[in-house]
Amino acid sequence: MRGIQILAVGLLTGFFVGVIVSFFNLAAEFAVEKATTVYALVRENPAWIPLFFLALIAISFAVATISELVPMARGSGIP
Fold first, then answer.
1. Considering only CA atoms, which of 33, 35, 30 is closest in space to residue 59?
2. If I label 37, which of 7, 14, 21, 29 is the partner at 20 to 30 A Cα–Cα?
3. pTM confidence score
4. pLDDT for 27-57, tens place per residue?
C-alpha cells in the first residue's frame, strides 16, 4: 500500500512539474519573440532608445523590489 502512495505522489508531482516547465518554455519563447521585435524597432528608430532605457531601468527596479520582498526568488546560482 505504501508503494502505491509513493507512486501516486511521484506521478502527480511529475505531472505538475511538467505543466510548470511547459508554461515556462512558452513564456521564454514569447519573451524572445517580443525582444526581437523591440530590438528591431529600436534599431530602425533611434528616437526610441531613451524610452527603451527607461523601460530597462523600470524592469531592474521591479526585479530588485521582488528580490527584497521575496528573498527565495533570488536563487542561489549553480550549487
1. 35
2. 21
3. 0.64
4. 999 999 999 999 999 999 999 999 999 999 9
